[in-house]
Specification:
- This is Ankyrin repeat protein.
- It holds the Pfam family Ank_2.
- The chain has 517 residues and is mainly alpha-helical.
- 54% of the residues lie in helices and 5% in strands.
- The chain has a domain at 1-149: Serine Threonine Protein Phosphatase 5, Tetratricopeptide repeat, CATH 1.25.40.
- It has helices at residues 2-10, 15-26, 47-54, 59-67, 89-94, 105-113, 153-159, 163-171, 186-193, 196-203, 213-219, 223-231, 251-258, 265-277, 291-296, 301-313, 339-344, 361-372, 396-516, and strands at 76-79, 84-87, 125-127, 133-135, 324-327, 334-337, 379-381.
- The longest helix has 121 residues, at 396-516.
Length: 517
């Protein structure tokens, strides 16, 4: 009987015929042939799930199966996100991708409303084998939360653009504050999908402000949802979201950078206007770039850039704040570029003509668009820093400061030139004086040399004269001595001769005397 029941609910027969078969089986009085309405055949899912797979729009079958005791909250393995996990019938029913046919809203609503035999709930949570969760309740658990994805029926209904089911779930006390595993709440998904009815319903209950919903609506160009979110007063049009995928961008910045630029311009313009009415700042910067610069970096930048210029940016196209700010990582000096210079210098992926780059067709088109809106070239460094040699379009205060610096630099240059000229003259004069002094010194040395030579020559003559005189005197003295010596010698010889004569005479006398004797 149980197998017969199971086969009847999955048979592709008409709703009324299937209902009649179920009633016949349920009316059986044979105790040994009673139908187990909670039994699940091998490799099958719960009866109510299999029935809805075959009859996705049958309210009568859902109601009757619940009355017979089919467990609407028994969990089974299915895929609510990108992975398989346990889910109950309600969560499964809201996911269109997991059904052979899209379940009708009335069938899902009946699943939400269905009550058991006595109209009460009996909660008992059991951990089963393979991490399956079995929840025995007599009504659908509207706040069922998936184990892995943390999805709830309300999150799934918001995600799959089922605003009527969102309203029904909220009425059934579904919790709109529960967030999925990526910290995304129902309002986030409804805003991303552009489900205005769901957004309005969710805004009537508790929700987390500035949860990224406004960013999602802005990026996907749902201007009506942008307006509703801002009007609610809890979504700031200038809120820099800390969500990892938003990286601190405001809704307008997110739209400018990441919206689909192939969409019609009126959709983009309407979204921009809605954000502007919410007092979105067009000059708010993200990584040094405001919304116009981010639009230039959009993967399809032409339509987005044009929409910004035609709505909020035209009146401020040459505003001092409409510049890209870059910081030199070494000097920490800030550089400012206008949109035209930003394109020409290749800062947005579109290289420049005057800096050795080549603008592609898109870049040339954007540059021409900016030119038609009278966007001026501006490129300069911050106040107080040494200005660029090719600076252009400076603000008045920076221009005055730059002129003052240039004038002072020119004065310093003039003073330095004068000083160098003075030093040169002094050097030349010193060199001339040195040459004159050297010449005088050389002349003096020459005179002194000549004097010395003259003196030496005179001294030499005197010396030679003295030597000659001394030699003469020596000669005279020698001659005198020789003469004196000669005289003395002669005298001595004479005396010797006299003495010899006297001696000879005496000897002769003696001899004579001897002879005489």
């Amino acid at each position: 009987m149980t197998n017969a029941f199971y086969e009847s609910i999955i048979s592709p027969l008409g709703e009324d015929l299937v209902l009649s078969l179920i009633n016949v089986l349920a009316a059986s009085q044979d105790p040994g042939r009673k139908v187990d309405f909670k039994a699940v055949p091998p490799n099958k899912r719960q009866p109510i799930v299999e029935c809805l797979s075959t009859h996705p729009g049958s309210v009568k079958l859902v109601r009757r199966l619940a009355e017979l005791g089919c467990d609407v909250n028994a969990q089974f393995e299915t895929q609510l996100d990108n992975f398989a996990e346990p889910a109950n019938a309600l969560a499964w029913a809201v996911c269109p991708s997991q059904s052979q046919h899209l379940l009708s809203s009335v069938a899902v609503q009946e699943l939400i409303d269905v009550k058991g035999e006595n109209g009460f709930c009996s909660y008992s949570l059991i951990h089963a084998y393979s991490n399956r969760l079995l929840v025995n309740e007599k009504i659908a658990q509207v706040n069922f939360t998936a184990l892995i994805s943390k999805s709830t029926p309300l999150i799934l209904a918001s995600r799959y653009h089922r605003g009527d089911i969102v309203k029904k779930l909220i009425k059934a006390n579904a919790d709109p504050y529960i967030r999925g595993y990526l910290e995304r709440a129902p309002l986030f998904f409804a805003s991303r999908e552009g489900d205005l009815d769901a957004v309005k319903a969710l805004l009537k209950v508790k929700y987390r402000p500035n949860d990224g919903s406004l960013h999602e609506a802005a990026r996907n160009l749902y201007s009506d949802i942008v307006a509703v979110l801002i009007k609610g007063g809890h979504h700031d049009a200038n809120f820099p979201s800390s969500r990892s995928e938003l990286k601190g961008r405001t809704p307008l910045q997110e739209m400018a950078l990441r919206c689909d630029g192939s969409k019609r311009s009126n959709e983009i313009e309407a979204t921009i206007v809605a954000l502007e009415k919410g007092k979105a700042s067009i000059f708010e910067k993200w990584n040094g770039r405001n919304s116009l610069f981010l639009a230039l970096e959009n993967s399809r930048p032409e339509t987005v850039t044009r929409a910004l210029l035609d709505t909020v940016m035209l009146r401020a196209i040459n505003d001092d704040n409409n510049v890209k700010v870059e910081v030199d990582p070494q000097t920490r000096v800030k550089y400012f570029l206008s949109p035209t210079m930003y394109l020409q210098m290749g800062r947005s992926g579109g290289p420049t003509d005057n800096q050795g780059y080549t603008l592609d067709q898109t870049g040339r088109g954007l540059l021409q668009l900016l030119r038609t809106k009278n966007c001026l070239d501006r490129y300069y460094v911050e106040f107080g820093a040494d200005q660029l040699s090719n600076a252009v379009g400076m603000p008045e205060d920076i221009a005055k400061e730059d002129k003052k610096r240039r004038d002072e630099a020119e004065k310093r240059k003039t003073r330095e030139a004068d000083h160098q000229e003075k030093l040169r003259r002094e050097y030349d004069e010193a060199q001339l004086k040195d040459r004159v002094d050297a010449s005088k010194h050389q002349a003096w040395r020459q005179r002194e040399f000549e004097k010395t030579v003259t003196k030496v020559d005179t001294s030499s003559v005197v010396h030679q004269t003295q030597l000659a005189q001394h030699g003469q005197r020596s000669t005279q003295q020698s001659e005198a001595l020789e003469e004196e010596y000669s005289v003395a010698a002669l005298s001595k010889v004479r005396n010797v001769m006299i003495e010899n004569d006297a001696l000879r005479q005496k000897q002769e006398q003696v001899m004579d005397e001897q002879k005489a004797h």
